Amino acid sequence: MSPRRxxxxxxxxxxxxxxxxxxxxxxxxxxxxxxxEKALVFSQNFLRIRVSDRSKYEPNFIKAFMESxxxxxxxxxxxxxxxxxxxxxxxxxxxxLPKLTFDHQREVxxxxxxxxxxYQKAMEEAKGKHEKSYTDSYQxxxxxxxxxxxx
Length: 151
Hints:
This protein has helices at 3-8, 59-67, 69-78, 89-93, 102-141, and strands spanning 16-19, 27-29, 46-49. The chain is mainly alpha-helical.
């Protein structure tokens, strides 16, 4: 692949990546720190949604809408294929987003990003408590010195 063609697949901060193959539809928004060290490119297994006018659309809002029940309905309705389902860029581009002001989009995106952070923190705390309970139980069984934990 030529360097010029490779640049067409290079990711930028704010790009929304959507898995285009399979029934599990995963999404992410590329953050500046994701591409800080080195350039990243996406493969044919993903669709890239690049916002051309960042003053009109907030990438995290686009992701939030696509993950919503309505967005998921559209994405699933557009999937083609029986063995391996595929989404086309054309179909995804035809999905209409709610017409909200940029500030309203940002508010929605920040609300959901905050909820995700709280969820992640709660999961990490629960995992720590879970591991501690098991470690404590191993001490009660008298087997805690018989193994070493590998992280």
